[in-house]
Amino acid sequence: MKTERLSKVDWQNVLDMHQLFDSINQAVIRKYAETSPVEALNLIFGPHGIVCDGVLTLYPDPMSDKGYFVRVERVDGKTTWNLDMRKMPHGEGGFLNRMVTLKEPEIFSNITSEITVKDLKTVPWLAKMKTALAVPTIGVKAEPATSVLFSYEEDAYTYQDIWKNVILTYAITNILLNMLLRRETDRAYRALDEELNIIASIQRQLLPEKLPDTDGLEWAAHYSTSARAGGDYYDFFPLPNDQIGVIIADVSGHGSPAAVVMSMTRLILHTYPGEVQPPGEVLENMNRILEGHILPGQFVTAFYGIIDLKNRTLICSNAGHCSPRLFCDHNDVIDEVKSKGGLPLGISADGGFETTSIKFKKGDIFVFFTDGLTEAMNRSNELYGEERLESILKGLSNESAGEIKDIVLKDVSDFCEGVPLKDDLTVIVSKVKK
Predict the structure, then answer these.
(1) What is the tens place of the pLDDT at every residue in 126-163?
(2) Which fold has domain 207-432?
(3) Cis upstream peptide for 278 (omega within 30°)
(4) What count of other Cβ atoms lies within 10 Å of the Cβ of residue 198?
(5) For residue 383, how many other CB atoms are within 10 A of its CB?
(6) C-alpha distance from residue 415 to each of 323, 390, 420, 433 (Å)
(7) Looking at 19-173, which runs of residues are DSSP E strands?
């Protein structure tokens, strides 16, 4: 409700101004990608906008005290917009140069005697103008600017005209600035998105092209990122004597920084001197290289195990990673694959990595995963958790590795109720077939 101190006319002026800005915002902001600066200016200079017969927006020439540029020129309903300063009309001296030095609005009732030959050389139609209203403001690139509104009539503007013109002149800068900034933001986001897609594509090429063809082991794997690129990593290494190495790792954070460290981790492993064993020494070598070569606060958790089918043992070492699960088919028990844990890679020169040996039997199932699985959240901010994972694994002894992987992922998806993952998620299932 309006205050009683305002007349109906005053209040109607407020409502009219609100309606004007609302119509401009609806037309420009919602269609900022398609609306050109000239179209935006024409909306403001329309029948309900600025009252004038001609407009100039002037910018001082930073290379000359007497020079200026003309960015916006509008006369008789025709608007010209110049964004590139190299193509802007340029003038020196005269009435227009004086305008770019003003610090506050000023009204000129009759500029006939003020206009010089230099002014007319730059803007010939000034010869027809009488009244001028100068409004110092800023340009769309935050540089000093002055908008000058002209009329064919002498002493043409009323108080209401001046008030409205000054407000709308300031509004022009904000509207155009927002429009152009949103365009630049969209362009930057598109470029960034394209780069992230490329990074994600390259990253996926660093992962194994296919699962190991290991006699006696059945494999399944799933890898997904919370962003375009991620920090999870897994790999397989064929080794002598019927052995195979499997590593699963998780770089702290996600996105491009994590993807870079993930690539470093893979490179270190694939340039390891000799066979990648024993696990504790492999992690120690990775830690030695990563420590001091990644950003402060970054680290890599990793579990590296060697499955020895001949001796039915998993030889492994852990660097602060989630303990894999071993589902023992013969007694329906799920155990953590525990090894004396060392620190995550990259934190300290002395990681304290030890190698552990664990026995397994035919039908047993190994499940390796990153914390993106157990820390997946539902709408109530509850974690999926290790207990739920172990519960879903029980009773799956007759399923294939691929079916076990699919059942676990579906259970996670059902639990999350459509809530997007906040971290990368990797699951590897290995089932002992003989």
Answers:
(1) 999 999 999 998 766 667 889 999 999 999 988 888 88
(2) Phosphatase 2c; domain 1 (3.60.40)
(3) yes
(4) 12
(5) 14
(6) 22, 14, 11, 30
(7) 54-60, 67-75, 78-81, 90-92, 106-108, 131-138, 144-151
